[in-house]
């Protein structure tokens, strides 16, 4: 829990920036899906496909199908006991909030030991862990940040630290790992990234970036800033120094290490109680959609 309330600057919301034509598309999109999904969720998928109705519908239907096949509604009960060991060879985690109240997600990808990682866990388990992390961000961390800030918060700030990577990022195995992680976000959790700040980029990263960049959609590419080793001033314009780990030029030194602490407003018991109410409503919406599909199948039969 934060010791003092952080003053944050709200950003324009997705729904607040829609043109009249986009709003009409959203209304039509919602009606086509039975009216059982909230406007913001549908707006994320529409924006990801530049408000092309057919492409957004295909994307959303694929998302619903994937949720059912993957068992996303049960993912919060998934246990990942190897997390401490995983973080030792793949340092990452959420840590406090930026100047707009968004959760900060940090990966020290330059310290990734992929060989050790897959001695500890498997690709399948990592995918399930990623999905659980996205669901937690969507249903817990972002709502908690909005409550703490007192204004809408819809996305996150991601910091990727490539320090120490040397030629490591040239590995095909690392490419595959990054592609696996980015696919989940782009296909099933679109428009949740507000900004990505890549720091300590080595000279060779320009070669790796040419390979990685085409995997990202155009909107995501525009949200990414590449920085060298003198990034601290720009980073501290995005987040208060007290919320940035010391290893990245900030003032924070969490007792167990900032990437192990999971520090943020989502740990406040009062905020957790409010989020619990919201998550019940999310579950009810999922149940409504399931019932609607069942009724349609019965009609066909």
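Sequence proposed for the structure above (301 residues):
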């Amino acid at each position: 829990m934060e010791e003092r309330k952080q003053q944050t600057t709200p950003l324009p919301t997705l729904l607040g920036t829609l043109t009249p034509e986009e709003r009409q598309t959203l209304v039509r999109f919602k009606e086509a899906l039975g009216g059982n999904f909230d406007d913001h969720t549908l707006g994320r998928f529409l924006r990801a496909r530049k408000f092309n109705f057919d492409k957004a519908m295909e994307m959303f239907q694929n998302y619903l199908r994937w949720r059912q096949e993957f068992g996303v509604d049960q993912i919060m009960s998934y246990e990942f006991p190897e997390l401490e060991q995983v973080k030792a060879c793949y340092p990452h985690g959420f840590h406090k909030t930026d100047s707009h109240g968004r959760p900060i997600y940090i990966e020290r990808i330059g310290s990734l030991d992929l060989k050790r990682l897959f001695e500890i866990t498997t690709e399948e388990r990592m995918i399930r862990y990623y999905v659980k992390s996205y669901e937690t961000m969507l249903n817990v961390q972002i709502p908690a940040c909005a409550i703490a800030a007192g204004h809408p918060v819809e996305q996150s700030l991601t910091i990727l630290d490539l320090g120490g990577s040397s030629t490591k990022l040239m590995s095909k195995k690392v490419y595959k790992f990054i592609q696996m992680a980015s696919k989940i976000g782009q296909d099933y959790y679109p428009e949740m990234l507000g900004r990505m700040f890549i720091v300590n980029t080595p000279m060779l990263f320009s070669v790796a970036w040419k390979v990685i960049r085409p995997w990202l959609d155009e909107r995501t590419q525009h949200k990414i800033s590449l920085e060298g080793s003198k990034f601290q001033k720009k980073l501290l314009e995005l987040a208060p120094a007290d919320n940035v780990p010391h290893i990245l030029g900030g003032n924070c030194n969490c007792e167990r290490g900032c990437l192990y602490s999971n520090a943020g407003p989502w740990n406040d018991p009062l905020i957790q109680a409010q989020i619990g109410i919201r998550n019940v409503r999310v579950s009810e919406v999922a149940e409504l959609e399931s019932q609607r599909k069942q009724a349609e199948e019965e009609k066909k039969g």
